[in-house]
Protein: Hypoxanthine phosphoribosyltransferase
Amino acid sequence: MNSDIEKVLVSEKEINEANERLGKDLTEEYSGKNPLFVCILRGAAMFMMDLIRHVDIPMEYDFMDVSSYGGENTDTTGDVKIVKDLDTSLKGRDVVIVEDIIDTGFTLDRLIKLFETREAKSIKIVSFLDKPARRIKQVHVDYIGVQIPDAFVVGYGMDYNEHYRNLPYVGVLKPEVYNAK
Structure:
């Protein structure tokens, strides 16, 4: 797998530092509250598990599987589908949406609107990666781990065709890998 990576964008050390910083910020903001962290599967699972180890307050979490990509696509379709919905009610809850990467903004735009209709008390977004060059829908991201350039990245939970999620860093996938069709 490592031979398919053009370059490492975010090292293991940088991942750990970002999680520690974000965890401290979230601990401070939600002190005295019981927020619900909503992990957007599958990409954000590794990030959320590492992140909440640095959140030093009572909190709960749930998972939602949302897709705007399909299989081998490297670009979003813009059509956001809920594959697995939440098991927890959002009514009156402080909600923290946990994402792996903010790209076009389509997914978060849809989720924010949905969570508002479900009467969440507040909605904040924490994303490990932010790729502002690709933004189409303007969404406010409250907490960002690392801002990256416009490149197709994998690792640390993010995939191409369900591969590379287990890389311990974030790397740029060589174009010949996804253009090999």
User: Anything to note?
Assistant: The chain has four helices and nine strands.
